[in-house]
Amino acid sequence: MERPASPPSLTALERLVQERPLPRHVGIIMDGNGRWAEMRGLPRMEGHREGSTSVREVTRCARRVGLKALTLYAFSSQNWARPAEEVAALMDLLREYLESEREEILDNGIRLNAIGEVDKLPRFVKDPLDRLRAESANNTGMVLTLALSYGGREELLQAARRVAEAASRGELSPENLDGQTFESYLWTHDLPAVDLVVRTSGEQRMSNFLLWQMAYAELCFSEVLWPDFRTEAFLRCLAQYQQRERRFGLTSAQVKREDSQRAKA
Ligand code: FPP
């Protein structure tokens, strides 16, 4: 009798993921820190703290498998309205992260980037953030973007405002505004297209994350809470992505024809 195939080991899974085409850019909505802590009778902040260990593990894994861009939704425009002590503790944690990960980021060829209204961050976060951005600016291994004080609508609004300003100065005529030009006004203008968005904790919504950029992104909703979302859970999302057929509005037959033409060329 045939034995059911056992699931691949972690290293085998990692190898499988590395062998297939990777998404150019992965965005992650890191959700479930609060619930993770509450389930253990701990203050919510402990969930965020454990979540920063997941940030480290997932970043390491992304770099190892050869991902070129990873964007983490670390603090939304709407998160400012959380209880003041939670906001303050998150800011402390971000500062700690920027200090403790500095060496690893620099040693591993990672460029640290940030999107969002970063000028709203307190100086004790903004200063080390700017320093690490500058220090890592020439790294080309992977770009790690922290979405901080970030909102997709806020990003689109600032882009629309700047487009209107350029038009009123006569530098841009409305009929020449196409998708590519508009994208150059987004905070993500220097990042590759987002191919995959992951959300942890079983919630299935986008919460104002990369609204323009996710137009054709594949979505992966994981039941795992962010503090428990480590290498294996991340690899499973990448493997799931690699099983998807991306159609961009075409039919499946058209996509297959294009793929075989590309393979022959
Ligand atoms: C959402 O979970 C998570 C956040 C608002 C903060 C994310 C922050 C971290 C993962 C740690 C710090 C980040 C870095 C880059 C070091 P939630 O609090 O809404 O969870 P809940 O839905 O269970 O309440």
CATH class descriptor: Alpha Beta
Query: Radius of gyration over alpha carbons?
Result: 20 Å
- H-E string: HEHHEHHEHEHHEEHH
CATH homology superfamily = Decaprenyl diphosphate synthase-like
- What is the mean pLDDT? 96
User: How much beta, percentage-wise?
Assistant: 5-15%
* Oligomerization category of the chains in this entry: single chain
Q: Find the CATH topology.
A: Undecaprenyl pyrophosphate synthetase
- The percentage helix is 40-55%
Structural class: alpha/beta
Tell me the number of structural domains: 1
Name the CATH architecture: 3-Layer(aba) Sandwich
Number of helices: 10
The total of beta strands comes to 6
Contiguous low-pLDDT stretches (5 residues minimum) are none
Which cofactor or ligand species appear?
Answer: farnesyl diphosphate
The biggest beta sheet is recorded as:
6 strands, parallel
Strand order, main sheet: write it out: 3-4-2-1-5-6
Give a brief rundown of this model.
This protein is of the alpha/beta class. It is built from ten helices and six strands.
